[in-house]
Amino acid sequence: MSLFSLVLVNLGRNKLRTALTALSVVVALFLFCSLRGVLDTLDAAIKVGSEARLVTRNAISLIFPLPPAYRERLAAQPGVKTVSWGNWFGGRDPVDPGDFYAQFAVDAATYFPIYASDIDLILADRPQGPGMVPAGVDPKLAAFFEDRTGCVVGEKLFRRKGWRLGQTVTVSGTIFPGTWPFVIRAVYRAKDPAFGEEALLFHWKYLEEKGMGGSGLVGWYVLELADPAAAGRVSRAVDALYENSAAATRTETERAFQAGFVSMYGNVPFLIGLIGFAVVFAILLVAANTMMMAARERTGEHAVLKTLGFDDRTLFLLVLAEGALLTFGAGLAGSLLAKLVLEGSGFNAGGLLPPMTVSWGTVAAGIAIAVFMGAVSGLFPAVRAARLQIVEALRKVD
Amino acid sequence: MALPISYNLRNLRQRPLSTLATALGVALVVAVLIGALALAAGFQAALVETGSPANAMVLRVGADGEISSSVTRDAAAILRALPDVAAGPDGRPLLSQDMVVLTNLDRRGQPGSSNVTVRGIDPAGLTLRPDVRIVEGRMFTAGTDEVIVGHRLPRRFADTELGDRLRFNQREFTVVGHFEAGGSAFESEIWGDNAVLMPALDRETFQSVTFRMRDPARLAQLERQLEADPRLGVQVQSERAFYAAQSQLLATVIRLAGILVTLVMAVGAIFGAMNTMFAAVDARTREIGVLLTLGFSPGAVMLSFVIESVLLALAGGALGCLLALPVNGITTGTTNWSSFSELAFSFRVTPAALVAGMVFAAAMGLVGGLLPARRAARQPLAASLRAK
To answer: Domain residue spans in chain A?
Structure first.
């Protein structure tokens, strides 16, 4: 009988106990990997967004708009290929105000060409008229361009709300008061996770006319660069241009802009990490306790094995391997379960974050921790088994 | 007849190491639960304690926070003339027209930035909020480029120490004081004179108007009266109710996430407790046989083992409470998405959280002990007496 099968037989001796220990380790690793997964997701969120695009916003904060006149001067900056712009609408579903999703007013004729590589239009309404679209715009958007109140929505939002193409959805404005009807003219799927699939995009012109009385204030500008390498130079040049104007700007790459939102979580990521370690430590104690109990009960058996000629080293490894194998299997199951469940859930905090991910690094770390847990728990009984005096142990009567 | 509890206590002492390990496992679960509840409680307390129930707060109708609100000067003037507004010692109405904006500040000592609320107030704004107290430096002088900063900000954000300068558009403002405000959300804000801040920030309307009510009992009538006034277009609530509503979303998220994590964690700990109790039952097979022979009913034996398990878990729960206590008062912060700005607050370990932790521990002991106890009670008598 090989050493490995001996380990297996030992694990099968008290099936209930082995199962309970394994399950507690599965649960611990599931939780650990899920919590680390949240951190992975936040980590991923600072790496999304293009570095070939710049975002220019008001230097004070995002809630301050920029004048419409900046448009031409930004477009004239050397290195800038195209300029688009958008505004945060911040409306609520009047039926279910708690069910939040993002709405953006965008300058459609420039916005969709810039983001053409990030999204696929999977559904589109048929145009009533000749179906003309501005240059560089996907012809599928023809119906959207015909309709002043048209909107394009993300696939996830579309499915979650059970909407149909051509349906009118109503949003009540918080920043721009009133009731805003939008007609769904197309549905997009995000190719780049940064884009998110829970947004509603509509014509900026509509917002300007109905909500701003034609003042044309812009939430932020998006600058598409001819050469991504010039990002630093262009952003410095733009900010210098407006440094002494009424509305100073802050320009950064789209990636840095997105990362700014993650920084807003403050201490939350640290706390999540802390809880992850508390979980692992708690279950480590429980598992170690069980393994020690198991080893203590078998003192006599270990003495018999030694009598049969097993040396100290082999016995040490035998006991250690038992713990490690158990926790390895359980750790593997728990970590993979976390990856499956979290990534399967598709949760993305209402579009504020990219979809949940549990990186393979986290899975590997989880398994490593599990094996380490098993080894540490097995260490004490293993040393005890190795040092066992045969005569002592066999003489002992329970 | 029931078995005495001292029997269980002696049994637990018999296996100190395994008792301790199981109790520690339970303790950590309970500590995490209490920590999460303390976080939610601290966050909620910071907002609930913001504002006074004697103050009424007026925002534009439909606005879900101050930054999306806008109250015109005309509307503010109408409110100012209301007979319901209490008068201050100087005879002037106790009413503050607040400008509320966000500024993006860099974090101190680490990369990244976050939004901080800037509030421009009327002179009466300080009388309205008597909790506000300067702890360092001095109060800003009305009409000058001076601001005071909530005392929780300097540790978290750059440019907020005394003498530092904050730039809004073309004007620079000097930080002249740090203030505290009874642990409320105001402690995460920057305050200055609205007459100076509004032109500097290019604001023409106020975001909210807050006033002391002559008779707070009239709030409901006032609400109906003002909300029906077509010249105003506003919504009215008590200042306290407004801030409490601002805490609802995030406090619920924190509490739910905390409970979810602890529940999953508890499942793991229950398996551990079961293991310990099964081992205890196995080790005492013969003893149990003797108890049954002596005439203790299987029900009494089962109850005794459940009690033992609950005692074990309660010991762990108590330890967990002790472990969680030191987090009380630790300051942390995150963005309150309802106001889109950072809110610093302290963990608050409430008696209710400690009780919840103990109840949770007892429940873990109960669930973990039931199956092993059942096995103990159902032992065939003859076989158990023959066991080693």
So the answer is: 3-46+266-395, 60-247
